[in-house]
């Protein structure tokens, strides 16, 4: 499978499971030994920690969030390994303490193929709008993004 197809498939699964607040499906996108750094710099290690960490926020302040993702780069970095960058626009509802707004992030993830299945092995999400003020940290929209 071409690297862009791998990345877009995982990005789509991420978006669908996030928007459905289905953290079991979300967790299934990740390798058993995956790591994930969220936009606050918290490190979760292992599929279970990633799933349950996201479940916690989706049952709380993220219960009314949705995301729209767009892969902007994907490349094979080794046989059976793809690195991808994905822009994500999160729409936050009234459940967040500082109210409804939009937040933009850039995620880097590395996917590996095992037994014919592509899974995210590691991911790091970086806010490109300030998480408290919504002021741009990086230029948005990104020149490569149709979002």
Automatic annotation (TrEMBL):
What range(s) does the DUF4440 domain occupy? Answer: 10-120
- Sorted alphabetically, which Pfam families does this protein's record hold? DUF4440
Q: Sorted alphabetically, which InterPro entries does this protein's record hold?
A: DUF4440, NTF2-like_dom_sf, Steroid_delta5-4_isomerase
Q: What name does UniProt use for this protein?
A: DUF4440 domain-containing protein
